[in-house]
Amino acid sequence: MTSAMLEIRGLNAWYGESHVLHGVDLVVNEGETVTVLGRNGAGKTTALKSVVGLVRQRTGSITFKGKDLMGLPLHHVAREGIGFVPEDRGIYASLTVLENLMLPPQFTAGGLSIKDIFKLFPNLEERKSSQGTKLSGGEQQMLAIARILRTGARFLILDEPTEGLSPVIVQRIGEILKTLRDDGMTVLLVEQNFRFAKRLADRFYVMEDGLISETFSATELDSRMGALQTMLGV
Fold first, then answer.
1. CA separation for the pair 188, 5 (Å, rounded)
2. Rounded to a whole number, what is the largest CA-CA distance in the chain?
């Protein structure tokens, strides 16, 4: 049996006086790829940021491998083996691809070597001396993912990884995530691109107005397609 890596129970979150999350419950088991679906403003990004400590006004419970993350300093979360790829990718424009890759330390054992990264992301090897400002959106997304893999993280959190990317790059990102899943990586993914997400996820959560409205497995997907397409506008 698989064991839960991440458990979120009764999570509430605020930005100032704005109450964004209203008691979110979510579980990601080891080795799973789990996708959170929902329209803009549903609270998906806030949920991810709450996990890694970027939202400080929160109540409820967030545990990772049984360890409480709520009281953990922000800079310690990565040391637990959690890697976060934000929607804006966080690439340092003045640094080269190689410098961006080398910037974060290896927090845990098992991080990919530069050689392994270039094997998985051949585009980055071709652009290793290019500055961040010279990269396309797709190359920046690949770099953001690759940089996390070097740290040794085995739990990958991605926020809208296909946003604004061409269909060819979206397909390549999907292939990379499938490779990581096959290698045992656990992935929590927020997506609006339902066609992309449905090819990857083992389970789905649907978020509306700061709440999880439903959850279902990949085997139940076909029976829910009509309702999901209406809800997500696809």
1. 11
2. 48
Distance CA 78, CA 95 (A): 22
The amino acid at residue 7 is: E
- When the pLDDT of each residue in the chain is averaged and rounded to a whole number, the result is 91
- Cβ pair 120, 148 in contact under 8 A: no
Rounded Cα distance, 168 and 173, in Å: 9
Alpha carbons within 13 A on the beta-carbon side of 39: 11
Distance (Å, whole) CA 186 – CA 33 = 6
Task: Give the sign of the dihedral formed by CA 118, CA 119, CA 120, CA 126.
Answer: positive
Separation of alpha carbons 45 and 54, rounded Å? 10
- H or E stretch covering 172: helix 167-182
9-42 pLDDT, tens digit each: 999 999 999 999 999 999 999 999 999 998 888 9
**Residue-range domains of the chain with CATH:** 4-232 (3.40.50.300)
Reply yes or no on whether the pLDDT at 208 is more than 70.
yes
pTM value is 0.91
